[in-house]
Amino acid sequence: MYHYLRNRRNQRHFPFPFIENFLPTKHCNWPFSTFTVQTPNANPNFEAVPSNFHAHSPQRPNLLSTHNLTSTHPAAPSLDKSPPFDQNSLNDIISSNKIITSYIRSGDLSSALRVFGNMTVKTTVTWNAMLAGYSRKPGKLTEAQKLFDQIPEKDTVSYNIMLAGYVQNSDMETVWSFFNSMPSKDIASWNTMISGFAQKGAMAKARELFLAMPAKNSVTWSAMISGYVECGALELAEEFFEFAAVKSVVAWTAMISGYLKFGKIKKAERLFKEMPVKNLVTWNAMIAGYVENCRAEDGLKIFRIMLRYGIRPNHSSLSSVLLGCSELSALQLGKQVHQLVCKSLLRDDTTACTSLISMYCKCGVLDDAWKLFLETKSKDIVSWNAMISGYAQHGAGEKALHLFEEMRGEGIKPDWITFVAVLLACNHAGLVDIGVRYFDSMVKDYGVEPRPDHYTCMVDLLGRAGKLVEAVDLIKKMPFKPHSAIFGTLLGACRIHKNLELAEFAAQNLLNLDPQSAAGYVQLANVYAATNKWDHVARVRRSMKDNKVVKTPGYSWIEIKNTVHEFRSGDRVHPELASIHEKLNELEKKMKLAGYVPDLESALHDVGEEQKEQLLLWHSEKLAIAFGLIVVPYGTPIRVFKNLRVCGDCHRAIKYISAIERREIILRDTVRFHHFMGGCCSCGDYW
Ligand SMILES: [Zn+2]
Ligand SMILES: [Zn+2]
Fold it and tell me: What ranges cover the PPR repeats (predicted)?
């Protein structure tokens, strides 16, 4: 595969060979020339508050305006009349102003101040540059005020900088009174006000100003549209967008983000297509929007188009794409994105590396995740969390805990996500006492408030060890109202330990909180069946029907050479079905010889989980695995994904298959990863 890609690359000199297969659809036939990449890291929904006086002020100042020269030299003559400066002095002032501005831009206020202090002659531009540094820095507003008062000849720009400082670092009343006191206001002053109110969600005030404003430009309209989108008033945003006299790329992007935020994908797509100029933020909004709306495949598609048109992704694009890859378990594309990252400036970017680690973990390739984790130069808490969670979800509990200790050793403070992973690790490794200790230490030593997720882990942990009464006690002691997931977890534990009494308690609570929970009914029916209470089983089925509970149809999928093959239980569609059935029949004979007895209870119990009651042998995960055995070369692990929990019989059968075929089989279900090898599963038969 990669060999093939390399050859193609050499032939065509095209940086992203893997996207060549993709042809733009009719929605995407815009010409390349309309793309411009602007401010790649800008917030997609807000044009910068015009505190940056260079950006939006129509009176963009020269670095030197001679009529505003001021001097701190005591003997300086009257400046307005006859500036005594020769060309050299002027050049000095210009270059000092430049130096100050560049220091301010890089956030180095003290160096800027040093240059400022050494200047014997300053222009208003000098003062403004310094003022901009102070007014933007949080906590420096008083200094900014003092500086502002010292400016000998303030111009509108000085006032606008100060106004932006107030907008960013002060209450809106102060802002308002300063705005009213301004001797003259230009379009930038009004925009600063409107953006400020809009960003604080005070849309009524923003609108008032908007109506009073004498002349509006694209920034004004963008601020209003973004503001409405942010506070969820999509219709008002739409109205403004429609009537906007000038629509900037920011306005278009804000509108697209708004549509995607509210799941209106069609409308977003239409605007995206109509939009005359797109920037990276627009593309990122589309990619992320698709992924967030469970349309990961479209997200990846649009990402490929973006690359095709030569737009360089930033880490925000990559994290969305990798999230999409994780969701689709599209390992091949994930690997291609990895190559892309390696060749780009994002190679050493912590966020990009962490997204990759997370993608590898979610696609079930822990070795690659670990390799990358080791290569990541500066790891932050998110990187550690990704790797610890990765190990925990794959049942490598001890590795996860070891890594956690290493992280503590490096002096990195764990957060609540770390502890979810740690408790999960204890859970999967069956380390009940250690888990309880970590849970206590989380609150006492790290001041991390327990969240519902932590309690769910704890109930799982206690339940696995058969400490069902303790689990119920913990639920009762929770500082918040129990959530349905926690009862689902308890119910699962009751099923495994066949505790009918607590199972009924758990199921009742679960179904009270979530009467549509198919899993709740199924699990309860399973408990009754396991204790031979068939009349109860029938009653549960009836009430499931009465409540019109919709069961999620079970399906499994496997990715082979960039194509995802999906199997339903009792599938009749897949073209390779005949050889798959043949393979399964052959396997069944070998499995039975090795001692496998089909778990007929599973066939009955999973009536709810699989859409139809089918022969156990044709459960979707078995079909996908048989297909994998046929097409995946020996020595390569078979990775199968399932949208529901794996059933008892499949779990048992896959253990046999892994031993008979001497293959590593990795199955991800909704609960966790199962690594089958040599007849055993990493979950220790508890899931
Ligand atoms: Zn099954
Ligand atoms: Zn397992």
Answer: 123-158, 186-220, 248-278, 279-313, 349-379, 380-414
Q: Give the pLDDT score at 451.
A: 92
pLDDT in tens, 132-178: 888 888 778 888 889 899 888 888 999 999 999 998 888 888 899 99
Among the bound ligands, name the one nearest to the CA of residue 609: 1
Ligand nearest to the CA of 646: 1
Based on the fold, state whether residues 515 and 597 are members of the same structural domain.
Answer: no
Nearest ligand to the C-alpha atom of residue 602: 1
Please tell me whether residues 444 and 575 are part of one structural domain.
no
Q: What is the CATH number of the domain that holds 528?
A: 1.25.40.10
pLDDT tens for 68-107 read 555 544 333 334 444 455 666 778 888 888 888 888 888 8
Residue 97: inside a domain, yes or no?
A: no
Pairwise CA distance, residues 577 & 590, whole Å: 20
Q: How many helices (H) and strands (E) does the chain have?
A: 34, 8
Please report whether residue 491 resides in a domain: yes
- Closest to 484 measured CA to CA, from 439, 436, 519, 526: 519
**What's the token pair of residue 416?**
């609540």
Q: Among the bound ligands, name the one nearest to the CA of residue 653.
A: 1
Question: Which of 328, 343, 366 is the C-terminal boundary of a domain?
Answer: 328
Alpha-carbon Rg for the chain in angstroms: 32
Q: Is the pLDDT of residue 113 over 90?
A: no
Question: Could you tell me the distance, in angstroms and rounded to a whole number, from the CA of residue 646 to the centre of ligand 1?
Answer: 6
Q: What is the mean pLDDT of residues 335-356?
A: 85
CA gap 352, 358 in Å, rounded: 10
| 457 Cα to the center of ligand 2, angstroms | 18
- Residue 681 CA to ligand 2 center (angstroms) comes to 5
Ligand positioned closest to the Cα atom of 556: 1
- Return phi, psi of residue 500, to 5°: -65, -45
Instruction: Tell me, in angstroms, the distance from the centre of ligand 2 to residue 313's CA.
Output: 38
Of all ligands present, the nearest one to the C-alpha of 605 is 1
Place of tokens 């500036």: 83
Report the pLDDT value the prediction gives residue 39, as an integer from 0 to 100.
Answer: 31
| Residues measured by CB to lie within 5 Å of ligand 1, the ion | 619, 647, 650
Rounded distance from Cα 626 to ligand 2 centre (Å): 18
What is the rounded (10 degree) CA torsion for 648, 651, 657, 659? -120
Do 397 and 535 lie in a common domain? yes
398 and 508 both lie in a single domain: yes
The alpha helices in 445-553, defined as continuous H runs, are 452-464, 468-477, 484-496, 500-513, 518-530, 534-546
Is residue 308 included in any domain, yes or no? Answer: yes
Instruction: Please tell me the number of the ligand nearest to residue 621's CA.
Output: 1
354's tokens? 């962490």
The domain total for the chain is 3
Banded model confidence at residue 473, pLDDT cuts 50, 70, 90: very high
| Separation of CA 651 and ligand 2 centre (Å) | 6
Tell me, yes or no, if the pTM score tops 0.70: no
H-helix or E-strand spanning residue 559:
strand 555-560
Residue list, CB under 5 A from ion ligand 2: 674, 681, 683
> Do 495 and 572 lie in a common domain?
no
Return the ligand number nearest the Cα of 620: 1
Same domain, 301 and 432: no
Q: With respect to residue 392, please indicate whether it lies within any of the assigned structural domains.
A: yes
Nearest ligand atom owner, CA of 619: 1
644 CA from centroid of ligand 2 (Å): 13
Residue that terminates a domain, selected from 301, 328, 355: 328
Domain membership of residue 632 as a residue range: 566-681
